[in-house]
Amino acid sequence: MAKEFQKNPMFIEQNHPQPHHNSAVIENGDFRKNVDEDGRPKRSGTWVTASAHIITAVIGSGVLSLAWANAQLGWAAGPAVLMAFSFITYFTSTLLADCYRAPDPVTGKRNYTYMAAVKAYLGGRKVQLCGLAQYGNLVGITVGYTITASISMVAVKRSNCFHKEGHSAKCSISNYPFMIIFACIQIILSQIPNFHDLSWLSILAAVMSFAYSLIGVGLSIAKVVGGTHVKTTLTGVEVGIDVTGSEKVWRTFQAIGDIAFAYAFSTVLIEIQDTLRSSPPENRSMKKATFAGIMTTTTFYILCGCVGYAAFGNNAPGNFLTGFGFYEPFWLIDLANVCIAIHLIGAYQVFCQPIYGLVEGFCNKRWPENKFISREYAMNIPFHGVYYLSPFKLVWRTAYVVVTTLVAMIFPFFNDFLGLLGAASFWPLTVYFPIEMHIVQSKIPKYSFRWNMLKILSGACLIVSIVAAAGSIQGLATDVKTYKPFKTQ
Fold it and tell me: Which own/partner pairs from 223-226 qualify as long-range (CB within 8 Å, at least 24 positions apart)?
């Protein structure tokens, strides 16, 4: 029998009022052992769990497009651009990690969200601009992952159909039932309270990302060793042979954008850091996790991008796993697509938890006495223990999953639009705000050498964002012109 009670909110929120506790309880030494200095449940995350969150967020299905990106840039620029954005992302992420606390990165007051950090250091209208970029990007990613996961599920179904019925079979399968299946799974997983309880899912998702990346690399190596001759060049696709001059320019822009945004995880960095225990200092653990996460992803990115390019040459497909067809070895292609789907199930939760926290924090602050919002029910679940069910969370989070699924069904080319969202959010979230907060925190003198170098880096990345946005708009316009409402994959 579920027990009904009201308890203080303990999730990510924009403005975090400290929970009120009975003074007698506070004097109890046992209570102090179970909470941090801000009165919240003691954080237990380590750099290992933070690394899993980062890998889950960074190695998205975008890794599958890196062979195509390399084909546009060639052997010279492709790996160089990969390494450049690996360094830029790591550098700006270390700056952002120091902004979790303010004003001191070790002893200052905690900032539970990216917006809270911007408010503490910069304030003003920049807080709203940060929120618009961050949460717009997060919503877009969750819609895009719904589409991508359903495509992988359909690929498994089609592969088995071809294997059973023959390669000439029509095997037309609708994406919509698989979007609904994905949504049902997300409705259940969305009841995970917050980032603090998400580590096991992130670790599973990270393992899945390694699995499908390795399968893709293995199949690419087999294709290269098999002696299939493909054309690769130092400068990528050739004008007049593979593409026109204008197509080369637009594709180069899109490729740079794909690589830049393949590393972006700043949208959830502060929220991930808020799961870390305070000893050793959170910024030190987060920098270690960031280094491990980005080194791991860079290794896989170079493998997938370079080996995939070697296997397919200048004709590399947008998703290099599809280049191996639906046929043989069908079971291995199936396994890769299952791993993609499982990874995206976990990644969806990593990206939507800050959205849940923002809305729930706002509602608790706006209507603190509303029983529907604040009341929870203690339920004993076998093999889990006590779970606190919140009717408000159940309704709101379910509604969010339903809405994102409907958008995915109505706009199946939304993944192209996601590139534009990524372009719009890359510069402010990954580069601009971390650099500006670092300048304020470290009190760097205006026009000093370090100040100038940071501003030059920020300006260069702004140009990358503009270029990538232009490429995304051109690609989106082309897709909309040629778009036919799809019922099958």
Answer: 223/311, 223/312, 223/324, 224/307, 224/310, 224/311
CATH, residue 100: 1.10.4160
Q: Is the pLDDT of residue 448 over 90?
A: yes
Cα-to-chain-centroid distance, residue 36: 28
d(CA 310, CA 307): 5
Q: Where in the sequence is the domain holding 361, given as residue range(s)?
A: 47-482
pLDDT at 137 over 90: no
Sheet arrangement for strand 3-6: 3-6, 375-381, 385-389
Residue 60 tokens read as 């998205």
Instruction: Give pTM, 2 decimals.
Output: 0.83
Q: Taking a C-beta distance cutoff of 8 angstroms, is the pair 193, 388 a contact?
A: yes
Q: Please indicate, yes or no, if residue 17 is contained in any of the structural domains.
A: no
In whole angstroms, give the CA distance from residue 209 to residue 381.
30
- Residue whose structure tokens are 């979790």: 100
Average pLDDT over residues 450-477: 90
Q: What is the distance between the alpha carbons of residues 41 and 11, in angstroms, rounded to a whole number? A: 10
Q: Domain for residue 305, yes or no?
A: yes
Q: For 301-352, what is each residue's pLDDT tens digit?
A: 898 889 989 988 888 887 777 666 655 677 888 898 899 899 999 989 988 9
Whether 294 maps to a domain, the answer reads: yes
Encode pLDDT of 284-295 as tens digits. Answer: 999 999 999 999
Looking at the structure of the chain, the number of domains it has is: 1
Q: Is residue 40 part of a domain?
A: no
